[in-house]
Amino acid sequence: MILELSGLVLIVVAAFVAGALNALAGGGSFLTLPALVFSGVPPIAANATGTAALLPGYLASAWACRDLIRAPLGMTVPLVVFIGMLGGAVGALLLLATSNEAFQLIVPWLLLFATLLFAFGPRLNQHLARHSYGSGGLWKRLGVLGVCGYGGYFNGGMGIVMLALFRLLGVHDLNAANGLKNLLSAVLTLMAVMVYIWGGAISWPEIPPMALAAVLGGLAGARIGRALPPVFLHRGIVGVGAVTTMLFFLGR
C-alpha cells in the first residue's frame, strides 16, 4: 500500500507528538491509534501498528532508567520480566482473536477508561500512597499479569494503570515505580509486537516514518519536559483523550 501524502503527514505528526508525550507522561496512543484509523488503516491493524511504531521509544526509556529498576517486595526483576512477557503475549493474542467490528465497538470504551485514568490518576496515586498491599505473592503476580495483558491488548493509559498497581504493591518511590513501568512497558510491548508480526496484524508501510518520528518526538519531549509545567501537560493529555474518545463514540 502506498501512503497518500495527507495520510503520511497525519501519522508522522501524530507519532512525533506521541513520542514526546510518552517521554513526558505517556498517552501517545491517544494520537497514534486515531491517526492510523482516520488514514484508512483497519482498527486492529491500527492498534498493532501504532504499538509497534512506539516500541523503540519504550526500549530507550527502559534502558535510560535501568539503574532505577526495583522489583516489588516479594518479587524479583527476572520474575517481573517473565510475567510481563507472558501478559503482553496473552493480550496480543486476545487482540488478534478480536474482529475489527468488535474492536471498533470496544475502542471508544477503552479510550474513555484510559482518559479517566489520566484525569484521576494523580488523585488515585495519592490515595494509594497511603495504602499498600505488600502481602500475597499470588495476587501480586496476577496483578502484574493483568496489567501487562491490558497493555498487550490496548496500549492506552497503560502507564497510569501500572503506576497505580505499583502503589498497591508497596512501591512508593516514584523513580523506582517509573523505572519499573518503563521496563514492563518495553517488555510487554516487545512481546506484543512479536505476536502481531506472527499474526500479520501490522501495516508495515506506516512503520518506518512513524518510528522515526516517534524517536525524534521522544528526544524533543525530553527537552520540553524541563520547562513545561506538569499540570499543563496533564490537562493537555486529558483534553486530547476526551476529544479522541468523543470522536470515536460519534463515529460508531
Specify the overall morphology.
globular
Number of domains: 1
Low-confidence stretches: none
**Average residue pLDDT:** 81
State the total count of DSSP E strands.
Answer: 0
Percent in strands: under 5%
H-E order = HHHHHHHHHH
State the distance separating the first and last CA atoms.
26 Å
- Helical fraction equals over 70%
Q: Can you count the helices? A: 10
Rg, alpha carbons: 17 Å
Structural class: mainly alpha
Largest sheet: none
Structure description:
- The protein is an all-alpha fold.
- It has one domain (5-250).
- Helix content is 77%, strand content 0%.
- It has 10 helices and no strands.
- It has helices at 5-24, 29-38, 43-64, 77-96, 100-128, 137-153, 158-168, 174-198, 207-224, 230-250.
- Helix 3 (43-64) crosses helix 8 (174-198) and helix 6 (137-153) packs antiparallel against helix 7.
- The longest helix is centred in the middle third of the chain and has 29 residues, at 100-128.
- The model has no long low-confidence stretch (mean pLDDT 81).
